[in-house]
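To: structure subgroup
Subject: Chain for Friday's discussion

All,

I'm putting the inputs and outputs inline so they're searchable in the archive.
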Amino acid sequence: MKPRIISTILAFMLTLGITGCYTDNVFIPQEPVVAFSDNVNTARQVPGGTITLRLSLQAAGGLKELSVRRGQTEVIKRTYSDKFIDRLELVDTIPATARENDVLNYSILLTDVQGRTAPALEYRVTVVGATFNVADTLVAGQQMRRVRGNINANYVFSAARPWFLDGAVFVDEGRTLTIEPGTRIYARFGGANLASMLVISQGAQIIAEGTRENPIVMTSERTLRNMANRGDWAGLVINGRAQTSAGAGSVIPGGVGAFGGMNDDDNSGSLRYIRVEYAGQILPNTGSFQLNGISFHGVGRGTKAEYLTVFNSANQGIRFYGGTVNVKYAAVFGSGQYEFRADFGWRGQGQFWLGMQRRDTAAERVFELRNSPDGSSNTTEPRTDGTIANFTGIGPGQASGFPNYGVRVRNGAFGRLYNGILTEMPENAIRFDNFTATDLGTRGVFANSYLFNNRRNNHSGAALFLEMARFGNALTAVQGVDLNNFVGSGASTFNPQTLGSFFSPAQFSGAVQNAANDWTRGGWVRELNGQIRQ
C-alpha cells in the first residue's frame, strides 16, 4: 500500500477516534459498534405512548443499515451511504392493544458495508397503567380537580374548574400537558415536609398559552386564605435536552429530574401569559436547595416562552440552568434573591425584561449572569453567553443600605446587554468581573443604557462602558421611571433587530416604552404592591 494512502487512512482513524489493525499491510477496519448514548436501556410506558432510543453508531468501514425490531416486527429501519458515524434519536409508539404488565423487547442491529454486524443491543419496555390520579376535592371551600403523581398520558387542564397540585406532579417523557387559557392552578402548602411543583420532564411538552385577559395562574393554595407567602410551593420546572456546562443528564437536588443534552433546538412546548406566585420553596431533605418561580433546566430554543411574570418568589424569579431558550416580555417582582439569573452555560436571548426588587430585605441582583454557580468551573464550555435587550431594573432605593446590584456578570460568564435602564440601586448599577480588553465590546457589552439615582453607577470592572463614548451610555434620569414606576424609556440609537431575528425593532432604552405600548397591562401581571395591573 502506498505511504500516502496509509497516511490518509491513519488520519481518518484518528478523526473518528477508532482503531483498527494491519495484517501484511492490509488495513482491517474495526467492527461496527452501536451503543445507547444516554446509557438507558429500559422504559415504562402506557399503551399509545412513545419511547425514544438515543443511539451512537460507528463503523470504520462505513455504516450500511440499522434495524430496530419490537419482538419479531421491524419497526424502524435506516440505511446509509458514505457515512461512518451517526447519533440519532428514534421514536416508536407502544401499540394501543398492549396490556398492563406486558414486556416489549426491542433488538437493535447495525451492519457495516462489509456485512459485519455489531453485537445486538436490547431495550425493554414495561407497559404500565396510568401513574397519576385525578379526583374532585374541596380546598378552602372551593371545588377543584386534585392531581397527583406522574402524568404519563396526554392530558388537559381545563379552565372550567381550578386544579390542585398535591405534591410533585411530573409530566413524563413523550407526553404533552395542555393548559387552557384562564386556568388557575393551586399548589398544596406542605411546609418543610412536602414540595408541590409542576415538572415537565425531558422529552415531554407543556402547551400553556393564556391570553392577556385570561392568563394561566399558578399560585399557592394559601392565597385562598389570605395567608400566602414566598416559598409556599416549589414552582414550575422545565427540563430540556439542550447543552449545559454541567453536562448531559445532570440532576439537581430534590428529585426534580435530569436535564441537559446535546440538542440546542430542543422543544419543550409553549408558554404564554403565565403568572407564577409565591414559589421558590426549599426542597425537603436537601438542606437549603430552593427552586424558583420558573426554572428552565437545559431548555432549548425550540421552546416558545413569552409574557411570563413571577410574583414574590422566595428564590430567583426566573432562572436558566444552561440551555438556549429565548424569552420575550418577562416581568419579575419581589424575589428573595435575583429577579433573573442565568448560569451553567445559558446562551439564549431575551428582550423586554422588567425586574423590581423587594423593599423589605436585601435581594442581591436584578440581573445575574454566571457560568459556574460557585466559581469552581468558570471556563467550562459551553459558557454562559446571553444577549439581552430592552430591560429595566429597579432596586429597593439607593439609600436602603442593602448590598443590591442592578447587573452583575461573573464566574466566567459573558453577556451583551443593550438598551437598558438601571435605577435605585444601593450598590453598583453594573458590575462586570474579570473581563479582558478583548472582551469589551465583543463578548462583554453594556450599551445604550441609562443609569441614575444609584449609590454607585459602576464597579471598577465596568467603568470603561461609561467612559467610552462608543457604548452610548448615559447618567441621566428617564422620565416616568423611579422607585415605584417602570413605564418610560430613553432615546437610543441602537435597534436590537440588528442582533437577530428573535429581536423586535425597539429603538429605545427600557423594558416598557410608554403608556401607549405598555405590555404589562390587561390583568395578567401582579405588581410589587400586590395589585393586579389592569
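Points worth raising on Friday:
The helical segments are 3-16, 463-467.
Residues 1-24 have pLDDT under 50 and may be disordered.

D.
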